[in-house]
Amino acid sequence: MEILDRIEFNSVSLESVLEDLRGRSPVIHDGHLRYAEHAVRMYRERFAGEELMPVRPYWVVQHEEDKLWELYAWWRRYESDDGSVREYRRLRHGKIKGSSPGELGIAAYVAVHGRPAAWPDPWSDRFPMLRSAQQRVRRVRIVEIGLADGRVSIEFDGSLEDAENYYRQHGHPHVAKVVSAGGLSTGASCFECKQMTGCPALPRVPGILGLPSRPAPLRKVSVSDLRYYKDCPAQAHLRALHLPKESEYSDSAKLGQAVHQWIESLHRRKGHPPCIAGDMPPSEQNWTEGRWHVPDELAEIGLRMLHHHVDACPFLAESLIEYVDTEARRAFHDTAAQVVVVAKPDLLYLDDGSWVWRELKTTQKESWFHDDLLEEFPQLALGVVALARGALGGDPSGSRVEVEVLRPEGSDLHTIDPFEPDRLEKALTVLRHYAAPWREDETFEARPSRKCQWCPVSKWCASYTPQDS
Ligand SMILES: [Zn+2]
Question: Distance from the CA of 428 to the center of ligand 1, in angstroms?
């Protein structure tokens, strides 16, 4: 974005912007620059010859009742000379994905009614509105471009009336859902939210990563990020920037995803009945599909794993399950380490008033690399500390972390009590071990190894040398 801004608003060439960025302090990661160059070339080639002019201010609709609501889209903005046509361009780091009707509805409305505004500084302030001429928007277009391959899709193209209708139908319900009382939820987006520091929904859990208190700029992290970091800081950094990835999943990782997805959809059923053999896919045919399609012999192994879930299903026990969250997203603000920690447990459920954090693991191996599950799967360690610190609320007495392991030959269920001092201590040690070097790191240098050949972001990494074998 910054490179495009300088090219479009300051008439600087791509080469000189890149040269300037290369000399910048703090240093911008080389992989990031490599990708940026590719992306800007794609973008400029695709939109070469367009007549619309780039617009620097944001388009913002402000609405004040008892609270201030601001509608805007951060996508790039363009308009015709006379201001009658406005266009949003959504840039995707990978391929085009499409936007939800709710997002499109808001963008279409803001394109019609938004007034020019500068970016707020600090971000917690309201958008400062700029003086502007009478608006004459008659037509709105919203396009999306995938910067990996330069493909474009037109997501919305219509008149002022079309934009208003579309907003009424799709955008307004989306806004209403977001702002409705009790609709607060936490997740990765907390990191960018203006209300973060005062938000009642975001638990403050100083020390959840096991690190000492220090003044530092706020960062966001997930346990997956930390695992990537351990392999290679550059990989973690380039992934966190959401650069396009290539062949991210091996066949056995795809199988794990397919098994997860099958079980998750069973657990979403109304009333949460326990899973039975009849819920599993029929044998003698490959049941995997789409993104998680795997060869027949692996699909067969996955089917055996699924059948072993029947003995380990969380809804089997005669428990008092009151609430089930199958797509759980949680965020915690570690106010000591200055980190928003985001988590996606496979399942969270409330059992007789106590939260249970459950993870599902699939493997064809006989044993794990580590003796201790908390070391093998650091996200369990996060679950242990979160529950021990009461970060999810509920009655702590029955809170636990459950790990369901599915193998082709059987299933195991492990339960970890977060209030066992030895387990909590271990969990904190594991998290500290992962998080301390990451929190200190400012440069995210590559750590080349044989793993580079499977790294999905190696394309952008200057330290990568392709192997022949
Ligand atoms: Zn089940």
Answer: 30
Last residue of a domain, one of 156, 179, 202: 179
Whole-number Å distance, alpha carbon 130 to ligand 1 midpoint, is 55
Q: Do 132 and 200 reside in the same domain of the chain?
A: no
Beta strands 339-343 and 219-222 are: parallel
Q: How confident is the model at residue 466 (pLDDT cuts 50, 70, 90)?
A: confident
Q: What is the largest CA-CA distance in the chain?
A: 71
- pLDDT above 70 as % of the chain: 96
Q: Which residue has the tokens 């529950």?
A: 387
* Token digits of residue 149: 């391959």
Domain count, the chain: 2
Q: What is the pLDDT of residue 184?
A: 65
What is the enclosing helix (H) or strand (E) of 351?
strand 347-351
Q: Structural domain of residue 147, as residue ranges? A: 50-179
Instruction: Give residue 406 CA to ligand 1 midpoint distance, Å.
Output: 12
Q: Are 168 and 222 in the same domain?
A: no
**How does strand 139-146 pair with strand 85-92?**
parallel
CA of 358 to the centre of ligand 1 (A): 12
**What are the phi and psi torsion angles at 225 (to 5°)?**
-55, -45
DSSP, residue by residue, 85-115: EEEEEEEESSS-----HHHHHHHHHHHHH-E
User: What is the distance in A from the centroid of ligand 1 to the CA of 177?
Assistant: 30
CB 228 within 8 A of CB 434: no
Q: What is the mean pLDDT of residues 335-347?
A: 94
| 161 and 201 housed in the same domain | no
Interval between CA 420 and ligand 1 midpoint (Å): 27
Q: 91: which strand partners? A: 145
Q: What are 37-71's pLDDT values in tens digits? A: 999 999 999 998 888 999 999 999 888 766 777 88
Give, to the nearest 10 degrees, the angle between helix 14-22 and helix 2-10: 130
User: Of 162, 179, 196, which residue is a domain's last?
Assistant: 179
